[in-house]
Write the structure tokens for this entry.
Amino acid sequence: MKRGVKKSLTLMTTLLLLAACGGNAGKSATDDSGKGNGTEQKSTRVLNLMEASEIGSMDTIFTQDEPSVNAQSNVFEGLYQLDEKDKIIPAVAKELPEISEDGKTYTIKLRDDAKWSNGDKVTAKDFVFAWKKMADPKNQANYFFLMDGTILNGTEIVNEEKSADELGVKALDDYTLEIQMEKPVPYFTSLLAFSPFFPQNEKFVTEKGKAYGTSSENIVSNGPFLMENWDQSSMSWDLVQNPEYYDADKVKSEKIHFEVLKETNTVFNLYESGELDVAVLTGDFAKQNKDNPDYEAIQRSKVYSLRMNQKRNDKPSIFANENVRKAISYALDKESLVDNILADGSTAIYGYIPKDFVSNPETGEDFRKEAGELVKTDEKLANEYLDKAKKELNGDVTIELLSKDGDGDKKVAEFIQGQLEDALPGLKVNVKTVPLNNSIELMKKGDYELSVSMWGPDYQDPMTFLESSVSSKNKTSYRSEKYDQLIDDASNKYANDPEKRWETLIAAEKVLVEEDAALVPLYQQARGQLVRPGVEGIQYHNFGATCTYKYAYISE
């Protein structure tokens, strides 16, 4: 079996958000090429949007929370980006990569007119610097596991067996990047559109040190927007057009303003008063506005789940007991959660891979349909598992549920608390509510028992969900030789056998969710929102960053 990462890292943030990128999914200001519709007129009307949580950091290798990734993906730009149909298109790269016949060498030509906001040219060396920084274990980058089994020497580097300088990427010249791979990785080009693979200006980053990415003054941009009026404690910020951006004439808005809004009633009131152009709604507000002509619900590929930490502060937690995990898994009424608490179009899910995300390469069958429904709600069976757990633990069971402090987060946590206590007599759930950055730190340290967490796909393949749960990479102390072997087989043994790889990934999901009850899938997110007439051009994506604002604007 391939060696894993020795050091654990954050693979999940706590319940991140029912966040707003805003916009009307059916109204795009781009053509099929993603190049824009040719209109160069700017909108001087400020577009007012929201996020449900603060931005953790603007350093692209150190965050996984959705607001941060969204902001990074509009302030910076990588080799590739997604168009409105989630097709990979060139960005800093001039064209799609030239890939060798064995799939192990990528040669990428960069455009020569891309600049940083300080006037420096964006070169191949900026990518080399950023990727080596991400791979180096001493930096504890949130996504350094993406180097394991992809870029040459990545596995040895994350295992501290080789120096980050030996990563298989080099600048052949200022505008030519060469990447050597450990093995063929079919989804690798799509990964290059994801924010951890964005470039960084080495001189600027080195000069700023630990302050880099912590405030507007400590950022240098190469994307369509500059960030203003932001630091890590900010509850608002602005994106303004970057005049150094090579495609600045296609950026539609001169300014986009964001507010962090955690209470749904505040969100609705600001929309009603004209101070917010897109309002994300949940619960009663979503129900009450279903017939509002401004309302829309957009299905996403983000999956929310219960994370059960099996070891806390280096000691076995309550979830080291398999019967406790299975009791929780079968007790929850997910349909009631999405119908009565969220009420925004989100759907209950009985597996970890979302529906309408990826299809069988041979038959075209959707993964979720082919894999079936796992762990359907069964209160009687849940109590049988709890009774077994009580005998093994010599008494009743008490659990701490970690929740973020947003309005939607708290309502979901309270529902889970009430549901579990009602369905499982003898079970006590205590809710611990903290701000976003505190929850991220607690997750990093493994200082929690149960949390509602979101995972949004980084690339369009089942592995983007499943690989993060292998023994060496998860942050829940879940250990399974069977699961690890299935994921290793899918990555290596069946890498060039699409159908067998597909079958192996289905089997792996069953072990994770049903046999081991390592996590409890809850729902596949939809975003219910009110969109003011005149809002145009926001692109929504099903993997990587949630939204692109390059073409977004609101008419005067």
